[in-house]
Amino acid sequence: MNNEVRTLAVKYKISPKRVTIKSGAKIIDNQIVVKKKKNNSLDKTYRYLKSRSFDYFPDIIDVSDEYIVYPYIEDCEEPVEQKAIDLVHLLSLLHSKTTFYREIDIDRIKEIYEEIVGKLEYLNNYYNDLITVIEKEVYMSPSSYLIARNINIIFGSIYFARDNIKTWYKKQENNKNERVVNIHNNINLDHYIKNEKPYLISWDKSRIDSPIYDLLSFYKNHYLELDFDDLFHYYESNYPLKEEERILLFTYMAIPPKIEIEDNEYKMCIKINKIIDYLYKTSNLIMNYQERKR
Asked: What's the number of domains the chain is made of?
């Protein structure tokens, strides 16, 4: 047990018998949670959220230059699907409570556009080179066969994202204002707990930005185990996305990850299967969404 834990135990009159480490936080005897301080403006963020009538986060009970202390909150057991719906409801509430409009920074819009276009061009060249090498193999390895068999979904995702980002950029050039909110910026099920009321924890990365970034992080963290067709529609029933927001969200979602080559064939096959699953699930989600909107 280190000096930090001993000092806090004495301060809060705890006789520490158990210290659990979870996601970098130290939970002392299920009474207090100690986290390293990563965001010096966290208290300011909490005050702002409370001013907007959003208080679904644990109160800070102590803070120093090095750490922040929160009360420990016991999480209720519930099915993961129900927890996901509850999280989406709380997320839509956060966004609606903190919405405001600001003048578009055209330089920032151009930066986003150029960053995505550059990434897509790199990926297009990377996968063109990769499939060229694979097609020259006399006998394809299992991982090479997986890539060759699914190369169309990879290029299709790149082309879709490229068309989408051009559409988004044209729309933003004609807009004067953009909608922004206080995003949590680290959305996953581990950061949602529920006791007498729901809480979002781990606000260290919070910032003012488009609401799509919370949806994007949630999707990328849980696309394999959750049905996002229903979750996204439930979110929009409470907080509808604007067309340009939805276009940018789908653009980010469609960008295929880079398949890093390694020597272990078994690990390569698992990695490629995961990426291909992501691309097919994302493609189906976007198509289903567009069909519902017709």
From this structure: 2
* Domain presence at residue 187: yes
Which of 72, 107, 131 marks a domain boundary? 72
CA distance linking residue 173 with residue 105, whole number of Å = 10
% residues pLDDT > 70 (the chain)? 93
Q: Distance between CA atoms of 243 and 175, rounded to whole angstroms?
A: 12
Beta bridge partners of 70: 33
Q: Kindly state the greatest CA–CA separation across the chain.
A: 71
Beta bridge partners of 63: 68
CATH code for the domain of 257 = 3.90.1200
Full residue range of the structural domain in which residue 38 is found: 3-72
Determine the 3-state secondary structure of 12 from DSSP.
Answer: coil
Distance CA 22, CA 283 (A): 34
Record the tokens describing residue 248, joined without a space. Answer: 């940018």
| Residue 272: count of CB within 10 angstroms of its CB | 19
For residue 51, what is the domain's CATH number?
3.30.200
pLDDT tens string 263-293:
899 999 999 999 999 999 999 999 988 777 6
